[in-house]
Amino acid sequence: MDWSDLDLCFVIPPRELRRRGGAYSVLRDIESLLLRNDFICSCRLIDAKVPILKFRDHESGIECDLNVNNVSGIYNTHLLSMYSRDIFVALRTVFSYAMGITAVVVHTVAPSVHIVIDGPFVRALLEPQLFFCSRRPVEEVYRKLDLPWRKVRSANKSTLGELFAGFIAYYADFDFAHRVISIRRGRPSRIGRRVNCCLPLRKRARHASSFKIFVEGPFRKDNAARSVSGATIFADIQDAFSRTDEVLRAEEPLSFAWADSQSKTFTMARFGLTRDYLSDLSAQIEQFFRRSSQTSETLEKKVEIRNNLQSVISRNFPMNSLHCADSKLFIVGSSVNGFGFDRGDLDLCLVVKEEALESKEYACTVLSEIKPLLLGFGSIKYCSLIRAIVPILKFRDLQSGIACDMGVNNVSSIYNTHLIAMYARVDSRLPPLGVFVKHWALRMRIHGADRGRLNTCSLLLMVIQYLQCGCSPPVLPNLQSLFPLNFDGECPVDELDMDLQLPWDELCSVNRSTLGELFTGFIAYYADFEFDQWAISVRCGQPFPINEVPSWFATFRGRRGRSKYRIFIEEPYRKDNVARSVYRENVETVKRAFKRTNEFLRERKPLEFL
User: What positions does the domain PAP-associated occupy (predicted)?
Assistant: First the structure.
């Protein structure tokens, strides 16, 4: 299209790529070179499964994506260019953008996938040399290909309108759950037969159902539509084909099909909700946020508690035993990230600068020596040491009545606090939505790490993940990909800037959904979410299959290969599971809470009935 991006692939010898530390390292070097040139602007490195460098040409304004050694993209380009000589392909591409089902960042269908989908419908019998061009060096791919074009031209004389209507009808009735789309074979095949060769490992066959749509890459034979993981987004794709098919059969203008897709980001018709019901729900969320969110007076009290404790620890800690005289106490969690209740606890993290250990034994030792110091401090009472996976010291400030939890050297909690606080600044709808989700989870009895339920961090990461990829267009970007230097977890914790200046105006979303629509979409997204097959990852900006990265899932698999954790929510920095506290028996409770709430919302009942 005239306004489309420019995709580039930089090819270097594999041996040289390994020597340079991989594609990400090469792109990082290229980024430093491009930033020195005036003709390049908005340069940023995206650490995805296939790392890309995104930048904009200053003169033309064209957005560019650069990858390294993704040679299958070159072969695919060559193959698809042979198919795309027909104007029908361009017409179908316009349709996909109009219906809002093309955008990889929100788990919809990548533009190249649409041409692969077209293949089985408008396929032609091409010579074998076209299909096996991956055996050639990539520099030879773009040489003029001499094919018997007259022979491969079909006798089918259907018009563009007839072909488009047939394309829509074909996929409106397509069995995505059991069929693989493959232009390599020229016809769909059963997903059970094809999955073993489509996926790198044979044992992944049982996880084929985790893909909502399976479109085989012509050369690598993997799933080109693997970004479509959410049931809600998949329903949007099916709805686009079905709704357009109905419009065409009724002989109505196409504008009837995509008018709602362009004007709304939330399909009220699919959920059976009225505008009045969603407006009332939005008002309820806003009122609860104003009534329950942390006030500036409460924050001042918490800061005062922190300052008093810092003074006690620095003054009285036995320096000859644990060397904590220069340690620093940080406020972490909801108290400072924008999602705090006015009656919420105060979470603290003591960072011992001369000890980088995050071991349970060391934390228990430090906290056990701090405990008598706090009990000797007049305003502290009910002090107890909890020897959990992350040991904490629980106590209460008598003057303010605020309950406090103190951990040791859990620096990832400081980085997470900073990251979530920055997400809260991107969009003003996130704090009230997050606070209301916490309230909803408490009422549904699925919140509370001390009782084997979801902790606050898990819930907030789930909300952020939904706003990154569960709604279209996305409400939130991927800050760790856009600004890796600010959110790489390498900055000293005492240098983290809670007033970090980012291009906030550029990060604002065009999504104008109300709080009621976002909450309903959040519930629907996780009501259909396959927790046993997908890991939630704010760092990636989208869920990834649990079995896709062996070095990650091996750390949380049991002796017999079964998943130890039934819910995996990736910690953005340490990449472990922040939902590890959820007991097995509580997993079904979490799923039921989402499904039950989803049913109540669809029936337009007040949430109080829950």
Answer: 159-223, 514-577
Confidence (pLDDT) at 291: 94
- The length of the chain in residues reads 610
What is residue 90's predicted lDDT score, i.e. its pLDDT?
53
The 8-class DSSP code of residue 295 comes to: P
> What's the per-residue H, E or C state across 220-250?
CCCECCCCCCCHHHHHHHHHHHHHHHHHHHC
Distances in whole angstroms, Cα of residue 490 to Cα of each of 11, 414, 494: 30, 12, 11
171 contacts 117 by C-beta, under 8 angstroms: yes
Q: How many CA atoms lie within 13 Å of 459's alpha carbon, on the beta-carbon side? A: 30
- Classify residue 382 as left (phi > 0), alpha (psi -120 to 50) or beta: left
- Tokens found for residue 484: 């890796």
pLDDT in tens, 192-232: 654 544 444 444 444 445 677 888 888 777 787 776 766 66
Q: What is the CATH number of domain 423-609?
A: 1.10.1410.10
Peptide linkage before 473 cis (omega within 30 of 0)? yes
DSSP annotation of 144:
P
> Which residues are bridge partners to 447 per DSSP?
454
101 or 332: whose pLDDT is higher?
332
Under CATH, to which class is 6-68 assigned?
A: alpha beta
As a whole number, mean pLDDT of residues 376-396 equals 85
Q: In whole angstroms, what is the distance from residue 199 CA to residue 314 CA? A: 56
Alpha helix positions (H), 273-295: 275-292
The two structure tokens encoding residue 500: 């970090």
CA–CA dist 123, 106 (Å, integer): 29
Strands, E, within 500-547: which ranges?
534-535, 544-545
CATH 1.10.150.20 fits 72-263, yes or no: no
Is 423-609 the same fold as 72-263?
Answer: yes
**Residue 530 pLDDT more than 80?**
yes
Taking residue 555's Cβ as centre, other Cβ atoms within 10 Å add up to: 12
Give pLDDT, residue 40.
79
Q: What is the pLDDT of residue 507?
A: 92
Query: What tokens were used for 307?
Result: 């300052």
Burial of 565 (0-12, 13-18, 19+ CB in 10 A): buried
- What is the fold, at CATH topology level, of the domain defined by 296-412? Beta Polymerase; domain 2 (3.30.460)
Buried/exposed code over 288-312 (b: 16+ C-beta within 10 A; e: otherwise): ebeebbbeeebbebbeebbebbbeb
Quick check: 495 pLDDT over 80? yes
What is the Cα–Cα distance from 369 to 357, expressed in whole angstroms?
Answer: 17
- Residue 518 near residue 475 (C-beta atoms within 8 A): yes
Collect all residues with Cβ–Cβ distance below 8 Å to 603 and sequence separation of at least 6: none
- Does the pLDDT value for residue 413 go beyond 80? yes
In the chain, where the domains are located:
6-68, 72-263, 296-412, 423-609
Q: What's the mean pLDDT in 284-299?
A: 94
